[in-house]
Structures are given as structure tokens and as C-alpha cells.
Design brief:
The chain is mainly α. Helices cover 74% and strands 0% of the residues.
């Protein structure tokens, strides 16, 4: 089990029955980065992952390579 699994399990237990909008999620992620700027890259990658369809995986890899340059 990864350490992050505990946080995900807590999220599921506490809010698993709720429905949220993408606007709400984006706002919460922005607030998290504001409080924890060292995680900005990780949050950006997660947001990009969530925003793209599985079929976009190839274009995602190309864009990430551009960002890293």
C-alpha cells in the first residue's frame, strides 16, 4: 500500500457519497497549491491527467515533454 492510499481512503470514506463539480475540485486544488507551493508540479500533473481522456495519452506525453524543455 502506498502512503497516499490512506488519504484516498479517507477521502472516499468521508466524501464518497458526495457529487462535486470540476469547478469545485479546481478551486480546492488551487487552494491546496496556495498553501503548499512545493506541490505545484504534482497538482498540475494530476489536473492535466484528470482533464484528458484516456485517448489523449499520446498527446499528453508530447505536451509534457515540451513543458519539461
Amino acid at each position: 500500500m502506498y502512503f497516499t492510499d490512506r488519504g484516498l481512503e479517507e477521502l472516499e470514506e468521508r466524501r464518497g457519497d458526495e457529487q462535486v463539480s470540476m469547478v469545485w475540485l479546481a478551486d480546492r486544488m488551487r487552494a491546496f497549491v496556495d498553501e503548499n507551493p512545493e506541490f505545484e508540479d504534482s497538482v498540475e500533473r494530476l489536473a492535466t491527467f484528470l482533464a484528458r481522456d484516456e485517448g489523449d495519452a499520446e498527446s499528453s506525453a508530447d505536451e509534457e515533454a515540451e513543458i519539461e524543455q
